[in-house]
Structures are given as C-alpha cells and as structure tokens.
Amino acid sequence: MKILNKEVLTQFQNVKVTKIEVLAPLIASKAKPGQFIVLMVVEKGERIPLTVVDKDLEKGSITLIVQEVGLTTKLLGKLKKGDDLYALVGPLGNATEIKQYGKVILVGGGVGIAEIYPVAKALKDAGNHVVVILGARTKKLLILDEELKKIADKVYITTDDGSYGQKGFTTDILKNLLKDSKFDLVYAVGPIPMMSKVSGVTKEESIKTIVSLNALMVDATGMCGGCRVSVGNETKFTCVDGPEFDAHLVNWNELGKRVNVYNDKEKHICRLYKL
Ligand code: FAD
Ligand code: FES
Ligand code: MG
Hints:
Elements: E1 3-12, E2 15-23, H1 25-30, E3 36-40, E4 47-51, E5 54-56, E6 61-67, H2 71-78, E7 87-92, E8 103-109, H3 112-125, E9 129-136, H4 145-151, E10 154-159, E11 166-167, H5 170-180, E12 185-189, H6 192-204, E13 209-212, E14 228-231, E15 234-237, H7 238-241, E16 244-246, H8 252-259, H9 263-272
Parallel strand pairs: 8-9, 8-12, 9-10, 10-11, 12-13
Antiparallel strand pairs: 1-2, 2-6, 3-4, 3-7, 5-6, 13-16, 14-15
Helix pairs in contact: 5-6
Bound molecules: flavin-adenine dinucleotide, FE2/S2 (inorganic) cluster and magnesium ion.
C-alpha cells in the first residue's frame, strides 16, 4: 500500500487534484473499469471510496485521481511518495458492462472525468465509436483531456467561463449531438446537478443512460446502508448494487440531499485540523 508516485494534475484557486499510484498487486490483478477502492489514510480516519482510474500489472499498481474536498482527501494529499496508506480494500462495486453498443457518448464533469477515463478506454477497445464531452469550471481545472483525445473518436470540451472549448455546459453539446445523430448509450459521471441534467436530456430522447453515483459510503460492503439510493421504486445500496445505475430511474433530489448531510460536521473537523 505504498505510494509509488504522486503528481499534482491541477491546482487552481481552491481546487487541487492529485494523481497517486499505489502499490496494490492483488487489486491491480482484479480491478475492472467502473470499480473503486476504499482507503483509510490514518488509523482513526474515515474510509473513502475512490475509482480505480488505471492499473499497471507489471508494477502491480493502481492509479487514483483525487480532488481535495474535505478532511480525508486533504490528508491523503499530504502523503508523499514512499508513504504508506493505513488501509486499502478493493476492487469494490460492479464493473461497467463493456460490450459493443455502437455509438456511445461519455460525459465527464470535474473529477468525474477521471472516472469516465477507464470506461472510455474499455468501450473503445470493445469496438465502439466513442465520443467524449468534458466539462470544467475553467481551463486550468480540466484534467485528462490530452489522454482522452488519444482514445476517443471525438472530444468536446466545455468550460463555464469559456476559457477553453465551448462556453457553457456539457448538456449544451449533448443536446446538439443528439439532434444530429443517433447514439446507443450515454455514460455520465460528475457533480449530481450535471448527471441529473444529462439524464433529463437523454430521457426525452429515450437513450439508455448510465451514471456512476457518488453516494456517501461507510463500509462499502453492503452492511451499513449509508449509501442507499432510490432507483425506480426500489432502495439500492450504491456500493454493492452500483455504483452504476440507470440514470432515468435515480431519485436525484434525495441523492443531492443525502450527500451533503454531514457537511457542517466535516467543515468543523477541518477547522480543528487547520486544513
Ligand atoms: P468531506 O468534507 O467529508 O466531504 C465532501 C463531500 O464528499 C461530501 O459532501 C460528500 O458528497 C462526499 N463524501 C464525503 N465522505 C464520503 C464518503 N465516505 N463516501 C462517498 N462520498 C463522500 N472522488 C475523487 O476525487 N476521485 C474519485 O475517483 C472518486 N471516486 C468515487 C467513487 C465512488 C464510488 C464514490 C461513491 C465516490 C467517489 N469520489 C471520488 C468521491 C470521494 O469519495 C469524496 O470526495 C471523499 O469521500 C470526500 O471525503 P473528504 O473527507 O475529503 O470530504
Ligand atoms: Fe454501507 Fe454501502 S456503504 S451499505
Ligand atoms: Mg470526510
């Protein structure tokens, strides 16, 4: 569980995104696109889920890309090359169903771009025509655009402030693409408002849409119920039933409320730790 490499991908305003390569040969040998790990930085710390973005079977390593948003991701950001994680478990969750769909669109927003990267690679390898739409607040916060350009048939970029690509939102491009051509699958990962808007657009066009949900997780093995989400008329546990679900069936309002439920306490702890 040693950190083999660490690289800051972007640091701008209050956002820092870091790529971390961790020695984990058993996880590397099993992990598939769409799956995640859960790690603990310190013994008395919390567990947090992070997507397995890449793996290197020769080195026995996995790559994680993490945006520092609160206590645990900031503590993780302080670890250096050569340091050990306290605990790491995985791979967890169901892998993405990779097959030949035909023409697919992957939509990634913010650090969600890291999560669509392995799926884009696998879908391309499976013979799909892969179109990628990336969204970031501003150019300096965009990650993996060069890497995705090497994989995808076409990459569209949007920034909220127009500093790179088209000014606006990923859904603006998505709507235009769906007007002009027929697509067989849309796969989206990013902030909840983005995923819910993508879902609204594709529902109108009746296009199968998969989202990977960032529900709050505690044990991540189906025991605590912390990650429950409402999908259709059923309660699902994101960690063992997901993390991917049919976007058109997700109760977005409920998910949006649940992910912010501990925010005040988390901010208080960050202040105590002076982070
Ligand atoms: P906090 O201040 O505790 O929380 C900030 C926000 O992060 C919360 O509002 C909540 O939305 C979310 N969060 C907090 N604790 C958890 C938790 N235990 N489980 C899930 N979400 C939580 N982030 C990345 O940067 N890169 C990834 O590849 C990535 N992959 C993920 C894959 C899955 C399946 C899930 C569920 C989440 C993923 N996340 C990823 C989100 C990441 O887990 C949270 O950003 C992290 O847990 C925040 O912890 P914190 O203590 O730093 O921040
Ligand atoms: Fe506990 Fe999913 S995190 S059931
Ligand atoms: Mg936390």
